[in-house]
Request: fold
Amino acid sequence: MKYNPSRRAFLKDTGTVGIATGIGLSLLPTVTNAASKLPLTGYLQQKLPYDYKALEPFIDALTMEIHYSKHAAAYAKNLSDACTAEKIDTSKISLEDLLQNISNYSPKMRNNGGGHYNHELFWQCMKGGIATMPNGELAHAITKSFGSFEAFKTQFTEAGKNRFGSGWAWLVQTSDQKLVISSTPNQDNPLMNIAEVKGKPLLGLDIWEHAYYLKYQNKRADYIANWWNIVNWNFVEERFGK
Ligand code: MN
Reply:
């Protein structure tokens, strides 16, 4: 996509994603998709919004340190390398746009673009302190979509437990404003045009062994059960929008 400063500014102001790229049509976005209200995620690793021990006892400090400073840092670095190799101008193409067209890029871009995005989201999906519950419109939408909050938790937990190998579990807002649960392999995510279930990821759970093995070893189900205590529902609510 050619860079057009006025189009970019327009998209930023309206949060509308257009497919019209032809001359003269560039200011007339015709498609509003589920990702349109995404707060944009950059290409660089951001500072962790809390310290390594903030999520204890549910996720231990050493796991957080290795996960953030080694695994996630490597995705960010490898993404940067892939962008250089594939001539992506990261000042002009958002990471979300890139992921939505990921089938045009290499497996390295897919693995590390997803890896970086997913972890940046994951850190913010968690917080220490007292466990909370969703409320307001999000709580209403969850009840409407899944029957109850408990039923939602059960279904999300199953998606995480049943993912074979490494991957993620997601709460996704689809383009027709429905809430659905999905799971992706490796570092794929629902933004990607190759995803089985596409939409805006509201909440993501990392179920790679590196996310829990030190404390939980093979007990992925225990990790997931404990993880509910540290979900940052305020953050999820902020992402949830019409
Ligand atoms: Mn991870």
Remarks:
- Residues 164 and 185 are 8 Å apart (CA to CA).
